[in-house]
Design a protein that fits this description.
There is one protein chain. 41% of the residues are buried. Strand 1 and strand 2 form a beta hairpin. The longest helix is centred in the last third of the chain and has 14 residues. The chain folds into 2 domains: 242 residues, QueA-like; 79 residues, Beta Barrel (Thrombin, subunit H), CATH 2.40.10.240. A 9-stranded mixed beta sheet has the order 2-1-17-16-14-3-12-13-15. Helix 6 packs across helix 7. 21% of the residues lie in helices and 28% in strands.
């Protein structure tokens, strides 16, 4: 399976640079994964396509101001660090730029010493492990010194930080937003619940595994980075019950999908658990946990495009993307939405 098989041409002006004024007014492309039939809608009408007794599962992770610009203590060279994965005891896995200047025992200073990071391990692909040294509460320091880690294809300044968070974001730890959830408003979620649709939450802290580009020609050679996930006992019980009753489980976002499929493939049911997943979903994958997916439009040759192709076939997905382009849909993080039913 070749990476280039998942390529498509996207006009640059269709890459959404800013969020819409109203979250739920984005376009919604509905794709029947069996027939390939396409319907064009507005996101707040998604409630009309959800059935009574469906179960909607969302990722309640919260993005931290994970992008930091500091200087090397010895040389004052400018270093950019993106916090990716909290390993506990003030040890963080980070993406570092330029990584060639950062070696074991390199110390980087942020905010004139308010936060120090000492490199303790060198890894591939610009990844380093750091020990964080500071006084006080880390999240307060990050709020002061860090910025929202917007993807590199977004060049506009984000005026309102909250627009890169879902309205139900709760558990701090992500280096990127689970963007499929950005379309939901409190009112829309209430409307969905009023239709007797159960709304449940899991957590996956979005890191490099989700947005790292595929750099190999052969898809099977791509190595996913692991991301931390968790599921509560209550959610596991409710999802198992939904399975037993034959209810449709609708995942909001690829991160939620990867969490649910990781757990179900590991235990053959849903269980209370937490851990790290490097699951890579591409065509040929057998979905055991989810039935349908609400998702955004993804980058060419990305693992996310491969995931949706596994669910709806590559042919259906590329046809839908082509139609979305013809209809001037907005793409990527702040872009429009797709419901694969």
């Amino acid at each position: 399976m070749k990476t280039e098989d998942f390529d498509y041409e996207l006009p640059e002006d269709l890459i959404a640079q800013t969020p819409l004024n109203k979250r739920d007014e984005s376009k919604l492309l509905i794709l029947d994964k069996t027939t390939g039939e396409i319907t064009h809608e507005v996101f707040h009408n998604i409630v009309n396509y959800l059935n009574e007794n469906d179960v909607l599962v969302l990722n309640d992770t919260k993005v931290i101001p994970a992008r930091l610009i500091g200087v090397k203590k010895e040389t004052k060279a400018v270093i950019e660090v993106l916090l990716l994965n909290d390993k506990g005891n003030n040890i963080w896995e980070c993406l570092t730029k330029p990584a060639k200047r950062v070696h074991v025992n390199t110390v980087i200073s942020f905010g004139e010493g308010k936060l120090l990071m000492r490199c303790i391990k060198e890894k591939e692909d610009g990844i380093r492990e750091f020990e964080l040294i500071y006084n006080g509460i880390l999240m307060e320091i990050l709020d002061e010194l860090g910025t929202m880690p917007l993807p590199p294809y977004i060049h506009e300044k984000l005026e309102d930080k909250s627009r890169y968070q879902t309205i139900y974001a709760k558990n701090l730890g992500s280096a990127a937003a689970p963007t499929a959830g950005l379309h939901f408003t409190k009112e829309l979620l209430e409307e969905i619940k009023a239709k007797n649709i159960e709304v449940l939450f899991v957590t996956l802290h979005v890191g490099l595994g989700t947005f790292r580009p595929v750099k190999v020609d052969n898809v099977l050679e791509h190595k996913m980075h692991s991301e931390h996930y968790s599921m509560s006992k209550e959610v596991a019980l409710k999802l198992n019950n939904a399975k037993k009753l034959g209810k449709r489980i609708i995942s909001v976002g690829t991160t939620t999908t990867r969490t649910l499929e990781t757990i179900y493939h590991k235990y053959n049911k849903f269980v209370e658990c937490s851990g790290n997943t490097d699951i890579f979903i591409y065509p040929g994958f057998e979905f055991k946990a989810i039935d349908s997916l609400i998702t955004n439009f993804h980058l060419p040759k990305s693992t996310l495009l491969m995931l949706v192709s596994a669910l709806a076939t590559k042919e259906n997905i590329l046809k839908a993307y082509n139609e979305a382009i013809q209809n001037n849909y907005r793409f990527f993080s702040f872009g429009d939405s797709m419901f694969i039913k």
